[in-house]
Amino acid sequence: MQPKIEVGVLGATGMVGQHFVKFLQGHPWFKLTWVGASDRSSGKKYRDATGWRLGGEMPSSVADLTVEDCKPGNAPKIVFSATDASVATEIEQSFAKAGHVVVSNSRNHRMETDVPLLVPEVNADHLQLVPLQQRKRGWKGQIVTNPNCSTIVLTMGLGPLKSFGIRRVVVTTLQAISGAGYPGVPSMDINANVIPFIGGEEEKMQVETQKILGEFAGDHIQPLDAGVSAHCNRVPVVDGHLVTISVEFANKPAIADLLDAFTRFRAVPQERKLPSAPPQPVIHMPGNDRPQPRRDAERENGMACFVGRVRECPVFDYKFIALGHNTVRGAAGAAVLNAELMVTEGLLD
Ligand code: NAP
C-alpha cells in the first residue's frame, strides 16, 4: 500500500472548510494533517476554533490539530482552499508561489486565463494550462479551481450533450440555502418564500459555463461560442441545487439519442476509477417528479448529477432539469475530485 498523501485545508474552520474536513475522512489517498484559518483561530485547537455545523461529530483526528496561520511554511504540498473571498487571492497566490498545489473552491482565480476551471468529467484536458501558468507566473506551485455550485450542476448536465453543438442555453436555478454559507440567509426572509436574487451568481454561471465547455487552444481556453442566460433564485431547501435548462443545438438530436448521451456518459474520472468519482456521473431519472433535492441530492455520495423531465421545448430544442449536491459536488467533493485527477496526471509530484 502507498502511504497517504498529506493535505491541508485553508479556511478549515468555515462552512466549506468543514465540508472538506468531513469529505476527507477515510479518504483512500489523502490524509488531512494541517488546518489553517484567520488570526482569530490560529493557535487554537480545531475543536475550540470551530463551531461544527455539519451532521455527525467533528472527526477526532482533526479536532486536536492546532489551527495555523494561512501562510506557507509548514503546510503540506497540497492545500485545499476554502478561505473567505476577501483574502483568497493573496493567500492562494502566496502558497502557489511557495511551491504548493492549491486546489481552490474560491471564486477569485476561476476566470484567470491561465487557471483551469475544472469539472473532471467535462474538461480534464484544461489541466494543460498548469505548465503555462507556472511559466508565466514563475511559480513552482499552481492554482486549480472548481466552479460555482450551480455552474457545476449545469455543466455536468450539458457535458454529455456537447457533441450536438450547444448554441443557446437558458437556465433557471432553485438554489439551496446551504449555498449561502453560515449563518446565510435570515430565516425570516427564506421561510415559505423565494428570493429572486443572488448577488453575482448569474454572471458567474454564464461566463464559467462558457469557459468549462470551451476548448484548450494551446495557450488559453477558447470559450464555448454559445449564449448562456441564467436566472438565479434562493429557495427554502437545505441542500441540493435544482436547475431547469432549455437548450438549442446546432444539430438537434432525436430525444432517444439525447437520453442515450446522458446514460452512456463516462469520462476520465470513471476510466481512472478516481476514489470520489461517481461510477455514472449523470443519472437520468424517468419519473415525472424526479429528481428532487430532498430525495435525491445525497445519492451517489452527493457526487452525481441527476437529470429528469427531458422533453421538447417549443422555443429551443429540449428542456430538462438537473440536480446536484451544492456543498459536496458543488464545493468540497469537487475540489477533492480535482486533486485526485491531478494525482493521476502527475501534477502533484
Ligand atoms: P466562511 O464560513 O465564512 O469561512 C471562511 C473561512 O475563511 C474561515 O475558515 C475563516 O477563518 C477564513 N478566513 C477569514 N478571514 C481570513 C483571513 N484574513 N485569513 C485567513 N483565513 C481567513 O465561508 P464559506 O461559506 O465556507 O466560504 C469559503 C469560500 O468558499 C468562499 O470563498 C466562498 O465564496 C466559497 N464557496 C462557498 C460555498 C458555500 O456553499 N458556502 C460554495 C462554493 C464556494 P476564521 O474562522 O478564523 O474566521
Characterization of this structure:
The chain is of the alpha/beta class. It has 2 domains: 5-148 and 332-344, NAD(P)-binding Rossmann-like Domain (Rossmann fold), CATH 3.40.50.720; 149-325, 2-Layer Sandwich (Dihydrodipicolinate Reductase, domain 2). It has helices at 15-24, 46-49, 60-63, 85-97, 120-123, 129-137, 149-158, 187-190, 201-212, 255-264, 268-271, 293-296, 328-344, and strands at residues 5-10, 30-37, 67-69, 78-81, 101-104, 142-145, 166-175, 215-216, 221-222, 227-234, 241-249, 282-285, 305-312, 318-324. The strands form 3 sheets. It has a 6-stranded parallel beta sheet, with helices on both faces. Strands 10-7-11-14-13-12 form a 6-stranded mixed beta sheet. A two-stranded antiparallel ribbon has the order 8-9. A hairpin with a 4-residue loop joins strand 8 (215-216) and strand 9 (221-222). Helix 7 (149-158) runs parallel beside helix 9 (201-212). The structure holds NADP nicotinamide-adenine-dinucleotide phosphate (NAP).
